[in-house]
Amino acid sequence: MAGSRVALAADDAALVSALESYLQEHFRLGLITAPLLKIGELLDRDADGLLLIAVSGGNDALEARRLIQDLNLQKLPPQVVLIDACGDISPLLALERYVVRRLRWPHDAGVIPHLVKELGRGREFQADRAESLEELLSRRLLALTPSLLPLVDRIALAAGHDVTVLLNGETGTGKTFLARLLHEHSPRQQHRFMNIACGAVSANLVESEFFGHVRGAFTGADRPKIGKFAAVGEGTLLLDEIDTLGLEQQATLLRVIESGEFEPVGSVETQKCRARLIVASNIDLEDAVERGRFRPDLYFRLNVMSFHLPPLRERVQDIAPLARGMAARFTRKFNKDLFEIHPDALAALEAYPWPGNIRQLENVLQHAVLVSSGLEMLPRHLPPAVQDHADTHAGGAPVNGDTLHHQRDVIERNVIQRALMSHGFSRTRAADALGISRVTLYKKMKKYGLMKQPAR
Q1: Are 371 and 381 in contact (CB under 8 A)?
Q2: Domain that holds residue 369
Q3: Which of 119, 151, 173 is a domain's end point?
Q4: Taking the model in full, what pTM does it have?
């Protein structure tokens, strides 16, 4: 099915049929339709067409409200028209401020053709359209971590080929997210993804955790155990905190990587490893090799392709999309009324240094959503530490000792990033909003590594 610039989200089959027939009569367009719970699969930051949300009763009004909350909190670009078939007294009246128009059906049916002509000019929604791996990955990264967009070609290469990947970065920088992303877009995506936190396994149980054991292999082994290398099958196995393994365990792992074979503890039966390995470390493994803490032969075996994930304090452009996505998720989880995040609250989040990285940001957003009581997340909903840091640095010296030049570049990049996201990544519209020429915008996008964003 080809994509369409107009999509319809509704649960009432009769209402869907009526709207489809009406639009077909006036436009002969291929309208994309989906239930309210499924329409999110078609929405991304590259589709800014017209989204019709049709509601016929109280049962689906709540889901429509949640969908509009998601769209507003995440600043997704589709232009939303609410089609209200609930009757004279509607539970949707309060949503008018968050949509382009609210129309009553069938009373306002004649207005719909005009809106389709005026608003349905954006990029197409996704609908079984063949996409390249780079396009698929770009859509995922745009929604969460736009700072990784310059790496999309290398990420696609790593995902599409069965090679060992080394991920490096501080705790909480998103290494598990990237490992899952690689798995979900790899030929092994139909198989399992499993994670071993090596640092949480005592040294004498590492081999049992990896390879399993037979009954009676050691004291306490009263039953056989299947290790993760066997349990994951042909899937992907993430060995997190691999730097915590001792040299003896490193040697065992090297043998498995080189030969593809292993034996459960206490067994002489050799098994074949069919998994793909992704390994992650919180420290620089090359430095660990130089200090004798990590085997150089294992390091070179693991480092076929590597990715470094900078700390969140160096990825300010990621904070807003991450915060918006988390706010939408927790708003739904806690059944809150949030539709927006106040700009001052976003500014406070972007000013904070985030020593705990993305995990800390997630905890802060959970707190803020939980204590919120209105339609907008305000600075006072943030934990005191975040508020105090923002107050301390407001109008003050550059944070973390950064130079004025660096701070200016960070701010300019964030402004451009937001303009692009707000205008569906249309360079022409973003340039107009910024008051610069399209050529100037192009040069600045190239300077700040934003060229992987969809050109329009």
Answers
A1: yes
A2: 313-447
A3: 119
A4: 0.78
